[in-house]
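Lecture 7, part B: from sequences to assemblies.

Below are the input chains for today's worked example.
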Amino acid sequence: MSYPDEDLGALEELDAIVDVLVDSAPPGSHDQERRHSIISDEEEALRDAGAIAVLRRGLAITPELRQGVTLTIALAAATALGKLAVPILIQQILDRGVYGANGYRPGFVAAACGGASVGIIVLYFISRATFLRLVRSAEASLLGLRVRTFRHIQQLSLADHVEQRRGALVARVTSDIETLAQFTEWGAVAWIVDTVLIITTIGVMFIYSPPLTAVVVAVFLPLLPALGYLQRRQLAAYDELRNAVGGTLSEVSELVTGAPLVLAYGLQRRTRRRLDKAIRTQYKAQMGAAKWFAIMFPLSDFFGALTLATVISVGALNGPAWGLNLGKLVAFVFLVNLLLAPIAELSEILDQTQTAIAGWRKILGVLATPIDVTEPENGATLPDGPLAVDFEGLRFSYRTGDEVLRGIDLHLTPGAYVAVVGETGSGKTTIAKLLCRLADPTMGTLRVGGTDLRLVAPESRRSAVRMVPQDGFLFDTTIAENVRVGAPETTDEEIRSAFESLGLGGWLEDVPGGLHAPVGERGTSLSVGERQLVALARAQLGNPGLLVLDEATSSVDPKTEQALTEALERLTTGRTVVNIAHRLSSAERADLVVVVDNGRVVETGTHAELVAAGGTYAALYSSWLGNTRVLSGD
Amino acid sequence: MRRGGALLWLSVRTQAGPFTISIVGATLFAVMAVGGTVILGRITDQVIIPAFEEGGVSHRAVAIAAAAVMAASLLRIAGVVMRRYFGQMAQRRMQMLWFTRVTDRYLAVPLSWFDDRPTGQLLAHADADCERSTIAMQPLPFSIGVLVIIAVSMTLLAFVDPVLLAVAIGLFPGLALINKAYTKRVEGPAAATQARVGDVSAVAHESFEAALLVKTLGLENREVARLENKADQLRQERLIVGRLRAGFEPGLDALPSLGTIALLWLGAGRLASGAITTGELVQAMVLFGILAFPFRIVGFLLEELPRAVVANERVQEVLAAPERVIPTTTVALPDGPVDVVLDAVSFAHGPDTVVKEVSVRIAPGEVVALVGATGAGKSTLCSLIAHLIDPDSGSVLIGGVPILETDPVEFHRATALVFQESFLFSDTVRENLTMGDDIDDDVIFAALDIARARTFVERLPHGLDDELGERGVTLSGGQRQRLSLARALLRQPRVLVLDDATSAVDATVERAILDGLRHSVAATTVIVAHRISTIALADRVLMLDGGRITAEGTHRELLSQPTYAALVRAYEQAPQ
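Predicted structure of the full complex, as structure tokens:
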């Protein structure tokens, strides 16, 4: 991307934005984000809302920012006064100190210069103090907004937390807030300072000579639409450039992630061809943007010169008749120069403003996304011990999309081991989610221990109903901390005994560092199976009455597999277990097998009953049997 | 600094053409910027003063004045356009050059080079690092222009009045120093801010990734506290930057103003004493306005240079990576089915020897299954056969030819490896299968048939021409694997290596695929297997443990071995 090299402020700013983008988001995520951004109905409505509507709504949500507006205006006034001091002083000294009726008056010149200097120094301190307060208030409100957005995202339904959207969600609390921060401390300040400067400069001109001011405005005015036009062309060019950069990045990314394939299939020449094409497209886009960028500044120069030439001509020829004098006309020359900078800056700030508004709009969109699960006040407490589970006419669909569960009626007795089987997409995983109240049924009720799950206090629910998720995600800390999560007061001894009670004491001893071994990012220092073991210990500590198992689909090495099987055996004893089963060996030992197909329960019974019945389950089973046992000699 | 100079000189030399034009433009701009002040001074003396103090001015004088102002502006414009456009051209061409070199190297390095390098970092080398290697090129022409401005201005001021020159000499170096001090002080906190943004991002990423855990365990408050802590650190870092900026930015406006006031005060006296004219005073003041900012541009160049050097060092590191060995003379493979021989092959990854002295012959058309625990060396053996990596000792022969001596193109035509991880590009299904080769639809569909991928491909809205990936359809893991398999099959390889290539395909479909393979593909085949059904397909089973072949034979023969029987039992337990 290009920098406007005349203006270092904008330059540093762009650089900072680029840094933020590079550091906070994985490469290519901008494009991805554009495609996967969370689109709720509310945001859809906001998307059409103009910049003003976003501003109004944003200020309503972050009232602290309004204080910032007042401060910014004060800052603008101080800055404008400081800048206007010089042309006014020139006029005063020329007209009253040098060319006045009394000729050269050194006393007046010294006094005027001294006064102006003191004024500028005072204004410097005022500007400094105001700017500091502005930064403080902006930072405080952005911190609040960031935390609020983060909390809201955490409370969103799990359906909003799918993997493709994760980058977008992270962007909401990072780069989007960053662009807002940039904007409140640079862009918004520039808007107000520049506007005030333009108005006051024209005001001073008007006091000196209304007709000459009219001339200035008339000659200058076409600059605005011209800049606007260039700006639009430039933005379009940058958009194209961003796409081109995205294209190059995705080619490189395919080369890098697909390196084994490139090598195994000898695709070097094909890859080189595609990379060349991408980088040439990017170069063309860069030069396309450079073209507009190159004529942006000269345009202001041209209009500035035109205005200057007109002011000098008209002023010299008609000035005396209009009551103008030498000092005022010279001051006009300086005032015209003073007008150029803010106008050019405003046109450059437009881009940043649009980015900030877009970011703000996305943040507001997230905040407007409804939270599906709300916790009851004074909720009920579930009893200790194994819990009964009742599904009554249960239906469920996500906010968008078809019904996933289409009427489930089931009674699970306390202490039963229930295996739920079915193909991917049958709805079995949704059943697990509803049991943990990650979502509420759209129709029907779900009772656990006789109480509607929606009426159970969250603390009680979380300890009585435990899910062991299949992905076994761990935080980047120690094994102990990962077990302790959710119950911070647990001692190391309790954790150790949880592992031991699951027969995992030996495993824990074998891990270098034991309880305090760091597990790495996402737990990747441990194998998939080992992560599951940690999750089991966590569940054991909670001593839940209902255990929801989401079995792992990936293969685990034989040794861990054995430990896992035994630990699961122990963990499930004495509890109601709903196992979302991917292995039919789990179904074989279940008290009740529930076969789900297309959102409905199609069969229930024990393994033996269902095999004998010769239905869906029997077919699944024989296929599995055929695959695993046919040759093992049994 | 010296390395910065070297990098800059290299860039300038490589892009001499556009760069020269850019510098000519910068000089033209500089001369005309100063020229503009001379014109304004002359206009004051010859147009404005006569108009007000001497009772009038001729239309001709006014017209000349206006024309001079416009002419200066047009020349400046020409200068800026040349400087910017051609400066960009030089920079972007240089970036393109670095990019091409880096990606060329990516295509030439051995596969192991990628092992410990995160994707994000490799992307950054090709993108951000190549761009940053060139950032110092951008302010360079303007910086040269700035030096011209300063030299010309000082000379002019010296001619006008030594007193005014003294004010300028007192003010501008001071301004430059203050600017430098500010940049230096803000550098640390600014970098810290970036680091804190990274922290916030890391917490958010981890936390959203753990969404299920956060919800089921009720960790919202804990997570919010964690983020708030990082966000607050960021806020505090920002306040430090803000405090520095609050002192500096208004100062940058105030100081030149104070300088101009000093100039005015002294200038008024000089004017009254007749030492200078009004026009010269005006000229000096406009000149002050021009001189106030260019010092920052030079500062900017000096600031960017180390960053460019650091980025370029990363680029150079990539360029210094070793290339794969390409045989100078090649031996042609025999026609027809070929055998695969491993002769005392060893391979170490870092300190660990992953494959130890493995010797085995796989007959033409034979199907061999590799089994063993995680880390036994199965995948490494596959990579060795497919020439993705080369053995540290021993050799791999195909059809009797050591693969190091085969022609790369011929080798790739003869062998195909299918990975557990399916690499599909964001492109059409067809492109993903043919990889740019011109292949008949009949052949494609035949391969899709064997891979059991035909039905779902035909069901896609545009069939073979549907886009996959971000912009297009999303496929399940099993479907992706089936496409990868079809990609290998349509090349009709003579050696087929399947490295757990059907792990995400469900059991019934896998069985159908393997039956199809058995009946319609005559390739010498090596399969890494985790399912009994896969093992059952093989003519022979090789069991690996700790990088060695510990048992070989048919499935039935091996069942009598306790370790093999235990392994098979574990597979039986494995998920579907």
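Note for the exam: Residues 220-272 of chain B form the longest helix (53 residues). Keep this in mind when comparing with the next example.
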